[in-house]
Every structure is written in structure tokens, then in C-alpha cells.
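I would like you to sit down with the record closing this message with an eye to the fold:
=====
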Amino acid sequence: ALELIDFKNALEQFQNLVEKMIIQKMKESSGLYTKDDDEIDYDKFYTATQTLFGPAVKDQNIQAFFRKIVNNPDEKPEWLEIFGCFLGESDGTSSPSKESMVLLVSEKQQITHSVVKRKDVIKGIVKVPLLHFIVTASQRGVLTVFSKQDTAWITGCDFLPNLKYVVAVTESTIILWDYKSKENQNNGFVIKPMKNCLLCVSTVMTSDNQAKDTILMGDDKGYVYLLTMTNDDFIMKQSKAEKESQFRFMDSESFNIPKRKLHDDWVVKIKYISALKRFASCSTDSTNSFVLDDIKRLEDNLPVKEFSVPKGVNAFTYCGKAKVIVTGG
């Protein structure tokens, strides 16, 4: 009973925090907000949420929740999402109420697919902490093993034209998918771990047809990364695939990945503009909002060409015919 009371109090404080953030964001969009010591940025939001709920919340869920509020304060996320729980679309069947969903807080995962047929019932369920799985047994003799599988949000993707791979980034990994492979197993690679949360990725498109591709990436700390890969990397640096995984893993430490801090906030978008032979990156940072320069600047400390926009830049594109870059904030 005490735990329930504590949770209700924490939840009420969390909802008050969210309301303050929404009011702040709406004032910012209308130009009526002036920064002060009470401003709620991501660090304050993260600290407050961790203080209220402790280890019951994961970093990626806090980031996703904060991002949703920033991008669309008119429609605040359900509080369940801070725990990784999501209410599915109604399909005509009965769904648990918000009150009963609190029971999912400790697990942070909801199993949606059926493991037993109709007129069958699960009679036993056993958790095996040592091996990280759960075993269920049904009345009609169906045994099922649920393995622990970490899921990740895809934050960006592109195509590698020379290596013929699809590249995608998550909050902590780089995924390289061999879309040509007809095998279910071992048809891709995962480079991990990445220290910061990756938010965007873009391929450097050049005229030469060398057997390599260069990838640009941006993270939540304002860094822009440069990763060049060849076919030899897939052969020399791969390790064994984890059980039940389609991907083999490569240690990020085995790659030379130059990076440079160009912004003081999230790198929202990055793109290589072939016509200008320059890369461009934008950020919600009001001071270093947009950068346009040679990719060599990522490997040295020379000044970069940049400009500032109040409240930052969320999107940009280049028009070759008019020779202009358009930004949106």
C-alpha cells in the first residue's frame, strides 16, 4: 500500500513536470518565453525523472518522451511511455485499463503475440534469471521460451551505394544490413557500442567508384562523426553473431571514427550535398545552428562555416537550380 501511495505521488509530480514543460514550449513557439533559472531542459528533465522513478525508467525512454514533447507539445505523450509501455490501437477486443497497466511498470514489456491456441490456457510460468528467459506451459502441452531481446529505436537510415548495404543508426549502435542476402541468418552487422545517442545518418555520395563508403552521423551531444568502411572491414573485424540474431557484431573501438563537436545541442539532421562538395548539419542550438563545410573539417580543428538562428534549425534542403539552402526552424 505504501509503494502504491509513493508511486501515485511520484506520478503526480511527473505529470506536473510535463505540464510545466508543455507551457514552456508553447511560450517558446509564440515568442513569449524568456529563459530563466526555472527553464526545464533535457538535463533537468532527466534528473527529475530519475529521482522520481529510479531504475524503473530507461535512458532511451526518457529521451524519447522528452523528444515527443519538444516536437509536438500540443499532444503530450501518455505517462506510460516513460516506462516503455504503449497503448495499442483498439481492435475491438477488451484492453487493460490504465490502472491495470501499472502492473507492467516493473517489466517494461508487453507480449502481444499469442503462444497458445483458443480453448487452451497457460498453466505454468517460470522465470529463469540466470539465462534471461521465461518458460510457459499450456494445458494442451505447448511449451514456450521467451528470450530477453533488447529493442532499439531507429533514428536514421541511408543507402551505401558502393558496398550495397543499408545503413541505419539507433541510439547506441550502427546497423549495416545486407538486403541482398536470401539467408535469414548472418545478413548484417552491428557496430557497437556508441558512447552517445545517434540521431541521424547520411552517406557521402562521390563520383569515384571505389569499393568503400563514407558515413556521416550526428548525436545528442552535438558531435558529428565520420566513418569510412570497405569490404575488408566486413571480413576482418566481424565477431560471432549472438544467439538468435541475424547480425554479427563489430567492436566500435576497432574503427577509426573521427568526430568533432560542432553544436551545443542535438544534431537533428546531417547531409552531404554533392553539388557543393560539402556536408551540412543542423541543430536546435541557437548559437551554432547550421554548419556547411568540407568533411576534412571533421578531422582537424580549423574553423567551420556556420550561422546562428534563434531556437536553432530543425530541417534544411539544397536547391541546385536556384543555388540556395533553405532552413526551417
Notes: DSSP finds five helices and 18 strands in the chain.
